[in-house]
Design goal:
The protein is of the alpha+beta class and about 70 residues long. The chain is built from 1 helix and 4 strands. The longest helix is centred in the middle third of the chain and has 10 residues.
Length: about 70
């Protein structure tokens, strides 16, 4: 089994989180809605319930509710 197609890195110093989809860098998310937009652009499910699906998104370091470098 492969890992989740979407990887969201821990927040950087500015609170932004690097996002990759299927191994390709797609941008920096500063809010959960940014992640949802990246999912939409990639043709992946975008409903808010999917952000907690570990088979779709791997949240590294901290989960989807943290958007600052300190959590």
């Amino acid at each position: 089994m492969e890992g989740a197609p979407v990887i969201v890195q821990p927040p950087g110093p500015d609170g932004g989180r690097r996002v990759t989809i299927r191994g390709e860098y797609v941008g920096i998310a500063y809010h959960l809605l940014d992640v949802v937009e990246f999912l939409r652009r990639a043709g992946l499910p975008e409903a808010s319930t999917t952000v907690d699906d570990p088979e779709l998104i791997e949240w590294r370091g901290i989960g989807p509710k943290a958007w600052t470098a300190t959590g």
